[in-house]
Amino acid sequence: MTGATQSKACEIIGITPKTIQRWKSHDITHDRRKDNQQTPKNKLTDLEKQRMLNVINDKDYAHLPPNQIVPALADLGIYLASESTFYRVLKEKNLLIHRNADKPRRNVTRPQPLVATGPNQVYTWDITYLPTRIKGLFFYLYMVMDIYSRKIVGWQVHDKESSALAADLMTDICQREGIEHGQVVLHSDNGSPMKGATMLATLQELGIMPSLSRPSVSNDNPYSESLFKTLKYRPEYPERAFENITAARCWVEGFVSWYNTEHRHSGIKLVTPEERHTGKDIDILAARVLVYKEAKKRHPERWSGDIKNMEPVGSVYLNPSNVKAEGEDFIAA
Predict the structure, then answer these.
(1) Among 62-66, 185-189, 267-271, which is the least confidently predicted range?
(2) According to the model, what pLDDT value does residue 33 have?
(3) Mean of pLDDT over the chain
(4) DSSP string across 55-119
(5) Mean pLDDT of all residues in 74-96
(6) Given 98, 153, 161, 224, which is the most exposed site by the fewest CB atoms within 10 A?
(7) Which long-range contacts (CB under 8 A, 24 or more apart) does 76-85 make?
(8) Is 146 a residue whose pLDDT tops 70?
(9) What pLDDT digit, counting tens, does each position of 112-124 carry?
């Protein structure tokens, strides 16, 4: 264009003045822009791609990955393309997915977040093995915890896993704790006793809402997992297997008594689950603050900062979402 400035001309054709200057300095006479590359000589034709897709979707090859399809075809005297080319075509056609006739993997959603602002609102439970003197045989410990107070609100030891036995345990807990319809949500893993017909029917009758973890995801039930670890790592845990079911029940009874009434739980500011469950933790922590302040007053040189935070724990969450409301604290197991 006669009279047109270089910058204006570059703006119209979509390149920068620097590009023009570089082309002139290197005597470049053709367009070197990347988006103007010529079609590769070895590019597959549409017919060749279709032949590959026909093979990929054939019933004899639909369950195989490309690194097995290519040699299988070669054994028949056929070569269509390399393994990497097969993968490129699969990606291009959005076929890098489950191609078997088998049922594909399910995407199971995370359980709904649960929050407890007081005792007897959210329970979590599970079953763990207790060893016996007979190899391969176990006793089964059923244990239910209140996530707000960490109190073990109920337990039983049996010689089998059963939805009916779990239902009996929940009925007993509701009677002792005075649970009303619609008051409690019960979370558990995905085992058969947890979702058996008898258990679900009993929960419906008791007015308890069930909540289940994702299959094989122990992190969805962290409070029970943490409780069982504490149980089995106690110094008093028998080195040898339990001789009989009576011995197992006696040991668990002693553990529950210690855990509820003596164990100062780190997740609830080192008060016992029983104190937290009954609301005594507020006065205990307030009195503890006075002791700490008096100690700091006597020897301020021994304190580099404020006293330890003794504010009572607020709401407790199970499987919280990544987004939380302003001012809320998520409490881990």
Answers:
(1) 62-66
(2) 59
(3) 86
(4) HHTSTTTTTS-HHHHHHHHHHTT-----HHHHHHHHHHTT--S--SSSPPPP-PPPPPPEEESSS
(5) 86
(6) 98
(7) 80/48, 80/51, 80/52, 80/55, 81/44, 81/48, 81/52, 85/44, 85/52
(8) yes
(9) 899 999 999 999 9
CATH architecture of 115-268: 2-Layer Sandwich (3.30)
Q: How far apart are alpha carbons 268 and 261 in whole angstroms?
A: 13
The residues spanned by each domain of the chain are: 6-36, 40-105, 115-268
Interior angle at CA 250, CA 244 and CA 256, nearest 5: 135
Q: Name the band, by pLDDT with cuts 50, 70 and 90, for residue 16.
A: confident
Residue keyed to tokens 């979702």: 195
Q: First and final CA of the chain: distance in angstroms?
A: 74
**In the Cβ-directed half-sphere of 280, how many Cα atoms lie within 13 Å?**
9
Q: What is the pTM of this model?
A: 0.67
Is 41:78 a contact under the CB 8 Å cutoff? Answer: no
In three-state form (DSSP H/G/I as H, E/B as E, the rest C), the secondary structure along 49-68 is HHHHHHHHCCCCCCCCCHHH
Strands 316-318 and 114-116: antiparallel
CA atoms within 13 A on the CB side of 211: 20
Which two three-digit tokens encode residue 305?
A: 């900062």
Q: Can you say whether the dihedral through the CA atoms of 245, 247, 250, 256 is positive or negative? A: negative
